[in-house]
Write a structure and sequence with these properties.
There is one protein chain. The chain is 27% helix and 27% strand. It is α/β, with parallel strands linked by helices. It has 2 domains: 160 residues, Alpha-Beta Complex (Quinone Oxidoreductase, Chain A, domain 1); 132 residues, Rossmann fold, CATH 3.40.50. Helix 5 links the parallel strand 10 and strand 11. The longest helix has 14 residues.
Length: 320
Amino acid sequence: MYAFAIDSFGQTPTVRDLPVPEPGPGEVQIEVRAAAVNPIDWKLAGGAFARPGAEFPFPLTLGFDVAGRVSAAGDGAAFEVGQEVFGMRRPGTAAAHPHGSYAQYMTASPDIAALAVRPEGLDPVAAAALPMTGGTALALTRWLDLQEGETLLLVGATGGVGSYVTQLAAARGARVIAVAAAEDHDYARRLGAAEVVDYRTTDVADTVRTAHPEGIDAVLDLVDGREVVAQKIAPLLRKGGRLASTVFAADPDALVEAGVRAVNFNYQATDEDMAELGRLVSTGALCVAETTTFPLTAMDQAHTASTSGHVRGKLVITTA
């Protein structure tokens, strides 16, 4: 089968021919139809998960988000052959499980991946664009606990996670201030943003402070480092505000003194979240992020696009 894999950390991943993985007890084999690209993929390839004493199985196939058909099932598997499923391999399992979703086939089990049946009407490309970023958005929105009329500053509003949080926050009645490049402002507004700020041409903190001198209620920063968050972004919050970072840029202890609750967020995927995402999209309550597709044979192009750091919506590969 074709797979996008590495033989060692730091190596440039390549598409190569690898054996089809067979399911063991409790596992399913998934014939991959589509798989989304996430920054965690190239971070894994670069060695971000390497630890002293950790033995990673090589060749290691990259890819976490998946949509496909169960093509074989081991004893005690949770899904049956022929079922269409979608979900994500949990990032912490890469050291024990080398079969990622950038391949024609992968294997998964409940301790490896969060999976749900793909609803009718949700095509594989759309389903693959949901799990990691959509699940993260669901969990972040719950943690932020946004109330109607509150303001949310969303830095990185038009990427994968941001595309979903914008919608979920607006559905709660929050006023979303989207920080994004000018060419993405219309997209942010379509998602539900009430205000947009161009980080390339304006000082984000000054712009927000001028528009909201009384302070804002919540911040989700998907981009900035510790210094920018501490000196520019966090001071925009009023007392009692909440701040979440997905790049571990928050200092929760320091922010407690300012009356702000903060978290460095690490998403733990669940089957229930995958099912909820499918339900939200199927009922029209959530729109799938704008997607750009690549064939598996052009996976290197999708990988390069992801490392640029300026992706709108989601990149998805297809095996057909």
